[in-house]
Amino acid sequence: MSLDATGTFEYDGDKTGIVSDGDTISLKGGQTVTIKDVPVGTEYGFVEQPSTHYLTSSQDATGTVGFSGSKVLFTNTHKVADLTLSKTVTGKGAETDTDFNFIVNLGEAGSFAYEGDKTGAIADGGTISLKGGQTVTIKDIPVGTSYSIIEEPSAHYISASQDATGTVGLSGSSVHFTNTRKLANLTLSKTVKGANADKTKSFKFVVSLDATGTFEYNGDKTGIVSDGGTVSLKSGQSIIIKDVPVGVAYSVVEEKTQGYKSEAKNGQGTVAESGNDIQFINTKVASAQKSPSKSSDAEGSSSPRTGDSLALIIALLSLLGCGVIATTSYAFIRLSKNER
User: Fold this and answer.
1) What would the pLDDT profile of 54-75 be if each residue is shown by its tens digit?
2) Contacts for 172-175 with beta carbons within 8 Å, 24 or more apart?
3) Phi, psi of 174 (to 5 degrees)
4) Which of 1, 38, 62, 265 sits between 20 and 30 A of 213, alpha carbons compared?
Protein backbone atom coordinates (compact mmCIF):
# COMPACT_ATOMS: atom_id res chain seq x y z
CA MET A 1 0.00 0.00 0.00
CA SER A 2 1.25 3.46 -0.83
CA LEU A 3 -0.08 6.73 0.63
CA ASP A 4 1.16 10.14 -0.37
CA ALA A 5 0.85 11.34 3.20
CA THR A 6 3.02 11.33 6.30
CA GLY A 7 2.11 9.82 9.62
CA THR A 8 0.15 6.71 10.58
CA PHE A 9 -3.50 5.93 10.12
CA GLU A 10 -5.76 3.61 12.08
CA TYR A 11 -7.89 1.00 10.37
CA ASP A 12 -10.81 -1.07 11.63
CA GLY A 13 -13.35 -3.59 10.39
CA ASP A 14 -12.59 -7.30 10.19
CA LYS A 15 -9.09 -6.41 11.31
CA THR A 16 -7.74 -3.47 13.33
CA GLY A 17 -4.38 -1.76 13.50
CA ILE A 18 -2.35 1.16 12.20
CA VAL A 19 -0.72 1.61 8.79
CA SER A 20 1.55 4.08 7.06
CA ASP A 21 2.94 4.49 3.57
CA GLY A 22 4.51 1.24 2.32
CA ASP A 23 2.94 -1.04 4.92
CA THR A 24 0.93 -4.21 4.25
CA ILE A 25 -2.50 -5.43 5.30
CA SER A 26 -3.62 -9.08 5.01
CA LEU A 27 -7.22 -10.05 4.32
CA LYS A 28 -9.11 -13.26 3.70
CA GLY A 29 -11.95 -13.72 1.27
CA GLY A 30 -14.98 -11.69 2.41
CA GLN A 31 -13.04 -9.45 4.83
CA THR A 32 -13.00 -5.63 4.78
CA VAL A 33 -11.03 -2.87 6.55
CA THR A 34 -11.46 0.89 6.55
CA ILE A 35 -8.42 3.17 6.86
CA LYS A 36 -9.60 6.18 8.86
CA ASP A 37 -9.06 9.96 8.48
CA VAL A 38 -6.85 10.05 5.37
CA PRO A 39 -6.55 13.64 4.06
CA VAL A 40 -8.81 14.35 1.07
CA GLY A 41 -6.76 14.50 -2.12
CA THR A 42 -4.15 12.02 -0.91
CA GLU A 43 -2.96 9.77 -3.69
CA TYR A 44 -2.98 6.07 -2.93
CA GLY A 45 -2.13 2.76 -4.58
CA PHE A 46 -2.73 -0.87 -3.61
CA VAL A 47 -0.89 -3.84 -5.12
CA GLU A 48 -1.78 -7.40 -4.17
CA GLN A 49 1.09 -9.81 -3.84
CA PRO A 50 0.82 -12.83 -6.21
CA SER A 51 -1.05 -15.89 -4.88
CA THR A 52 -0.46 -19.35 -6.27
CA HIS A 53 -3.38 -20.79 -8.29
CA TYR A 54 -5.38 -17.51 -8.20
CA LEU A 55 -6.14 -14.91 -10.83
CA THR A 56 -6.38 -11.38 -9.42
CA SER A 57 -8.55 -8.50 -10.63
CA SER A 58 -9.10 -5.09 -8.98
CA GLN A 59 -11.28 -2.01 -9.04
CA ASP A 60 -9.92 1.48 -8.24
CA ALA A 61 -6.64 0.09 -6.93
CA THR A 62 -5.06 3.51 -7.56
CA GLY A 63 -6.55 6.99 -7.23
CA THR A 64 -7.11 10.01 -4.97
CA VAL A 65 -9.09 10.06 -1.71
CA GLY A 66 -12.36 11.95 -2.33
CA PHE A 67 -14.63 13.94 -0.05
CA SER A 68 -16.92 10.97 0.42
CA GLY A 69 -14.01 8.56 0.73
CA SER A 70 -12.78 5.95 -1.73
CA LYS A 71 -13.31 2.21 -2.15
CA VAL A 72 -10.86 -0.39 -3.47
CA LEU A 73 -11.95 -3.94 -4.33
CA PHE A 74 -9.79 -6.97 -5.08
CA THR A 75 -11.25 -10.23 -6.45
CA ASN A 76 -9.26 -13.44 -6.54
CA THR A 77 -10.51 -16.32 -8.68
CA HIS A 78 -9.24 -19.79 -7.92
CA LYS A 79 -8.29 -21.08 -11.34
CA VAL A 80 -8.22 -24.81 -12.11
CA ALA A 81 -7.47 -26.64 -15.32
CA ASP A 82 -7.02 -30.18 -16.61
CA LEU A 83 -3.95 -32.31 -17.20
CA THR A 84 -4.34 -34.79 -20.09
CA LEU A 85 -2.18 -37.92 -20.42
CA SER A 86 -2.20 -39.99 -23.62
CA LYS A 87 -0.36 -43.06 -24.89
CA THR A 88 0.66 -44.31 -28.35
CA VAL A 89 2.36 -47.62 -29.15
CA THR A 90 4.04 -48.09 -32.53
CA GLY A 91 6.39 -50.47 -34.31
CA LYS A 92 6.09 -53.91 -35.85
CA GLY A 93 4.52 -56.35 -33.43
CA ALA A 94 3.42 -53.56 -31.04
CA GLU A 95 1.21 -54.95 -28.29
CA THR A 96 -2.05 -53.00 -28.11
CA ASP A 97 -3.27 -54.93 -25.05
CA THR A 98 -0.22 -54.26 -22.87
CA ASP A 99 -0.55 -51.84 -19.94
CA PHE A 100 2.12 -49.19 -19.46
CA ASN A 101 2.47 -47.63 -16.01
CA PHE A 102 2.92 -43.92 -15.29
CA ILE A 103 3.92 -42.25 -12.01
CA VAL A 104 2.19 -38.88 -11.62
CA ASN A 105 3.93 -36.30 -9.42
CA LEU A 106 1.93 -33.20 -8.51
CA GLY A 107 3.06 -30.16 -6.55
CA GLU A 108 -0.35 -29.84 -4.91
CA ALA A 109 -1.93 -31.69 -2.02
CA GLY A 110 -5.22 -33.52 -2.35
CA SER A 111 -6.78 -36.06 -4.66
CA PHE A 112 -7.89 -35.35 -8.21
CA ALA A 113 -10.43 -37.31 -10.25
CA TYR A 114 -9.54 -38.50 -13.73
CA GLU A 115 -11.77 -39.65 -16.56
CA GLY A 116 -11.51 -40.88 -20.14
CA ASP A 117 -10.56 -44.41 -21.15
CA LYS A 118 -10.10 -45.06 -17.45
CA THR A 119 -11.64 -43.45 -14.38
CA GLY A 120 -10.46 -43.02 -10.82
CA ALA A 121 -8.67 -40.60 -8.53
CA ILE A 122 -5.00 -39.81 -8.12
CA ALA A 123 -2.77 -37.88 -5.72
CA ASP A 124 0.88 -36.93 -5.78
CA GLY A 125 3.02 -40.02 -6.44
CA GLY A 126 0.14 -42.17 -7.66
CA THR A 127 0.14 -44.36 -10.78
CA ILE A 128 -2.07 -44.65 -13.83
CA SER A 129 -1.92 -47.51 -16.36
CA LEU A 130 -2.71 -46.98 -20.03
CA LYS A 131 -2.69 -49.12 -23.15
CA GLY A 132 -1.73 -47.88 -26.58
CA GLY A 133 -4.33 -45.42 -27.86
CA GLN A 134 -5.79 -44.64 -24.43
CA THR A 135 -6.15 -41.19 -22.82
CA VAL A 136 -7.13 -39.89 -19.38
CA THR A 137 -7.80 -36.35 -18.18
CA ILE A 138 -6.95 -35.41 -14.59
CA LYS A 139 -9.53 -32.80 -13.62
CA ASP A 140 -9.48 -29.45 -11.82
CA ILE A 141 -5.84 -29.07 -10.89
CA PRO A 142 -5.00 -25.56 -9.69
CA VAL A 143 -3.39 -23.46 -12.41
CA GLY A 144 0.34 -23.11 -11.81
CA THR A 145 0.68 -26.50 -10.13
CA SER A 146 3.97 -28.18 -11.04
CA TYR A 147 3.82 -31.72 -12.39
CA SER A 148 6.03 -34.48 -13.74
CA ILE A 149 4.96 -37.79 -15.25
CA ILE A 150 7.40 -40.69 -15.47
CA GLU A 151 6.78 -43.89 -17.41
CA GLU A 152 8.07 -47.07 -15.83
CA PRO A 153 10.48 -48.95 -18.15
CA SER A 154 8.88 -51.53 -20.45
CA ALA A 155 10.83 -54.43 -21.90
CA HIS A 156 11.37 -54.31 -25.67
CA TYR A 157 10.12 -50.71 -26.04
CA ILE A 158 11.82 -47.34 -26.44
CA SER A 159 9.87 -44.52 -24.78
CA ALA A 160 9.66 -40.88 -25.85
CA SER A 161 7.59 -38.11 -24.25
CA GLN A 162 6.29 -34.62 -24.88
CA ASP A 163 5.79 -32.08 -22.06
CA ALA A 164 6.26 -34.72 -19.36
CA THR A 165 7.25 -31.97 -16.87
CA GLY A 166 5.88 -28.45 -16.46
CA THR A 167 3.17 -26.40 -14.75
CA VAL A 168 -0.55 -26.55 -15.36
CA GLY A 169 -1.55 -23.64 -17.59
CA LEU A 170 -4.76 -21.64 -17.75
CA SER A 171 -6.00 -23.67 -20.68
CA GLY A 172 -4.74 -26.94 -19.22
CA SER A 173 -1.72 -29.04 -20.13
CA SER A 174 -1.20 -32.19 -22.20
CA VAL A 175 1.41 -34.93 -21.83
CA HIS A 176 1.97 -37.54 -24.52
CA PHE A 177 4.07 -40.72 -24.44
CA THR A 178 5.02 -42.78 -27.49
CA ASN A 179 6.46 -46.28 -27.13
CA THR A 180 8.15 -47.82 -30.14
CA ARG A 181 8.57 -51.57 -30.18
CA LYS A 182 12.17 -52.32 -31.15
CA LEU A 183 12.96 -55.46 -33.15
CA ALA A 184 16.18 -56.98 -34.49
CA ASN A 185 17.42 -60.18 -36.19
CA LEU A 186 19.40 -63.21 -35.03
CA THR A 187 21.74 -64.70 -37.65
CA LEU A 188 22.76 -68.36 -37.16
CA SER A 189 25.49 -69.86 -39.35
CA LYS A 190 27.27 -73.23 -39.54
CA THR A 191 30.81 -74.15 -40.65
CA VAL A 192 32.31 -77.67 -40.75
CA LYS A 193 36.02 -78.21 -41.22
CA GLY A 194 38.71 -80.83 -40.76
CA ALA A 195 40.03 -83.79 -42.77
CA ASN A 196 37.29 -86.16 -43.95
CA ALA A 197 34.58 -83.80 -42.59
CA ASP A 198 31.14 -84.55 -44.04
CA LYS A 199 29.98 -81.24 -45.53
CA THR A 200 26.57 -82.71 -46.37
CA LYS A 201 25.75 -83.71 -42.81
CA SER A 202 22.98 -81.81 -40.96
CA PHE A 203 23.58 -80.51 -37.43
CA LYS A 204 20.67 -79.75 -35.11
CA PHE A 205 20.35 -76.64 -32.92
CA VAL A 206 17.94 -75.91 -30.04
CA VAL A 207 16.85 -72.25 -30.00
CA SER A 208 15.72 -70.77 -26.66
CA LEU A 209 14.05 -67.34 -26.61
CA ASP A 210 12.67 -65.46 -23.61
CA ALA A 211 9.72 -64.29 -25.70
CA THR A 212 6.30 -65.62 -26.56
CA GLY A 213 5.06 -66.32 -30.07
CA THR A 214 6.72 -67.64 -33.20
CA PHE A 215 9.40 -66.03 -35.34
CA GLU A 216 10.00 -66.53 -39.04
CA TYR A 217 13.43 -67.39 -40.37
CA ASN A 218 14.80 -67.33 -43.89
CA GLY A 219 18.09 -67.80 -45.69
CA ASP A 220 19.31 -71.25 -46.73
CA LYS A 221 16.22 -72.58 -45.01
CA THR A 222 12.82 -71.04 -44.26
CA GLY A 223 10.31 -71.71 -41.52
CA ILE A 224 9.21 -70.59 -38.07
CA VAL A 225 10.71 -71.18 -34.65
CA SER A 226 9.62 -70.48 -31.09
CA ASP A 227 11.17 -70.91 -27.67
CA GLY A 228 12.63 -74.43 -27.45
CA GLY A 229 12.33 -75.10 -31.19
CA THR A 230 15.00 -76.70 -33.36
CA VAL A 231 16.75 -75.79 -36.60
CA SER A 232 19.08 -78.00 -38.69
CA LEU A 233 21.93 -76.64 -40.80
CA LYS A 234 24.68 -78.08 -42.98
CA SER A 235 28.15 -76.67 -43.44
CA GLY A 236 28.09 -73.27 -45.12
CA GLN A 237 24.40 -72.69 -44.42
CA SER A 238 22.90 -69.81 -42.43
CA ILE A 239 19.46 -68.49 -41.48
CA ILE A 240 18.13 -65.18 -40.16
CA ILE A 241 15.51 -65.31 -37.38
CA LYS A 242 13.47 -62.18 -38.02
CA ASP A 243 12.01 -59.47 -35.79
CA VAL A 244 12.95 -60.67 -32.32
CA PRO A 245 12.29 -57.98 -29.66
CA VAL A 246 15.40 -56.10 -28.59
CA GLY A 247 16.50 -57.05 -25.07
CA VAL A 248 15.15 -60.61 -25.24
CA ALA A 249 17.48 -63.21 -23.74
CA TYR A 250 18.42 -66.03 -26.12
CA SER A 251 20.60 -69.13 -26.26
CA VAL A 252 21.39 -71.51 -29.11
CA VAL A 253 22.75 -74.97 -28.22
CA GLU A 254 24.01 -77.51 -30.76
CA GLU A 255 23.17 -81.13 -30.11
CA LYS A 256 26.30 -83.29 -29.80
CA THR A 257 27.45 -85.12 -32.92
CA GLN A 258 29.87 -88.03 -32.60
CA GLY A 259 33.19 -87.43 -34.27
CA TYR A 260 32.94 -83.62 -34.23
CA LYS A 261 34.15 -80.97 -31.81
CA SER A 262 31.82 -77.94 -31.64
CA GLU A 263 32.78 -74.30 -30.96
CA ALA A 264 30.18 -71.52 -30.50
CA LYS A 265 30.51 -67.76 -30.91
CA ASN A 266 27.77 -65.59 -29.35
CA GLY A 267 25.79 -68.69 -28.51
CA GLN A 268 23.90 -66.85 -25.78
CA GLY A 269 23.13 -63.25 -24.81
CA THR A 270 20.43 -60.62 -25.31
CA VAL A 271 19.14 -59.33 -28.63
CA ALA A 272 20.90 -56.06 -29.51
CA GLU A 273 19.42 -53.22 -31.55
CA SER A 274 21.92 -54.00 -34.33
CA GLY A 275 21.10 -57.73 -34.18
CA ASN A 276 23.31 -60.68 -33.20
CA ASP A 277 25.59 -62.94 -35.26
CA ILE A 278 25.73 -66.51 -33.90
CA GLN A 279 28.34 -68.87 -35.36
CA PHE A 280 28.96 -72.56 -34.82
CA ILE A 281 32.16 -74.22 -36.09
CA ASN A 282 32.48 -78.00 -36.06
CA THR A 283 35.86 -79.66 -36.50
CA LYS A 284 36.12 -83.30 -37.53
CA VAL A 285 38.04 -85.28 -34.92
CA ALA A 286 40.53 -87.87 -36.30
CA SER A 287 39.69 -91.48 -35.37
CA ALA A 288 42.04 -93.16 -32.86
CA GLN A 289 44.34 -95.87 -34.52
CA LYS A 290 44.26 -99.39 -32.96
CA SER A 291 47.64 -100.87 -31.85
CA PRO A 292 48.58 -104.12 -33.74
CA SER A 293 48.31 -107.25 -31.54
CA LYS A 294 51.51 -109.16 -30.76
CA SER A 295 52.02 -112.39 -32.65
CA SER A 296 51.79 -115.49 -30.54
CA ASP A 297 54.70 -116.82 -32.58
CA ALA A 298 56.96 -113.95 -31.56
CA GLU A 299 60.32 -115.07 -30.24
CA GLY A 300 60.47 -115.24 -26.50
CA SER A 301 56.70 -115.28 -26.09
CA SER A 302 55.74 -117.02 -22.87
CA SER A 303 52.07 -117.41 -23.72
CA PRO A 304 51.12 -120.60 -25.49
CA ARG A 305 48.89 -120.53 -28.50
CA THR A 306 45.37 -121.92 -28.29
CA GLY A 307 46.34 -124.84 -30.53
CA ASP A 308 49.37 -125.68 -28.40
CA SER A 309 47.30 -125.68 -25.24
CA LEU A 310 44.79 -128.05 -26.75
CA ALA A 311 47.53 -130.42 -27.92
CA LEU A 312 49.11 -130.36 -24.48
CA ILE A 313 45.82 -131.28 -22.84
CA ILE A 314 45.28 -134.16 -25.26
CA ALA A 315 48.80 -135.46 -24.63
CA LEU A 316 48.29 -135.39 -20.88
CA LEU A 317 44.98 -137.20 -21.21
CA SER A 318 46.68 -139.82 -23.41
CA LEU A 319 49.41 -140.39 -20.85
CA LEU A 320 46.84 -140.72 -18.10
CA GLY A 321 44.93 -143.19 -20.25
CA CYS A 322 48.02 -145.27 -20.88
CA GLY A 323 48.78 -145.35 -17.19
CA VAL A 324 45.30 -146.60 -16.41
CA ILE A 325 45.54 -149.29 -19.08
CA ALA A 326 48.99 -150.34 -17.88
CA THR A 327 47.84 -150.60 -14.28
CA THR A 328 44.78 -152.57 -15.29
CA SER A 329 46.88 -154.99 -17.38
CA TYR A 330 49.32 -155.60 -14.51
CA ALA A 331 46.54 -156.30 -12.12
CA PHE A 332 44.97 -158.73 -14.54
CA ILE A 333 48.27 -160.60 -15.05
CA ARG A 334 48.82 -160.98 -11.33
CA LEU A 335 45.29 -162.11 -10.87
CA SER A 336 45.72 -164.75 -13.56
CA LYS A 337 48.89 -166.04 -11.99
CA ASN A 338 47.30 -166.34 -8.62
CA GLU A 339 44.44 -168.26 -10.07
CA ARG A 340 46.89 -170.72 -11.49
Assistant:
1) 889 999 999 999 999 999 999 9
2) 172/81, 172/82, 172/83, 172/84, 173/81, 173/82, 173/83, 173/84, 173/147, 174/83, 174/84, 174/85, 174/86, 175/83, 175/84, 175/85, 175/86, 175/147, 175/149
3) -125, 140
4) 265
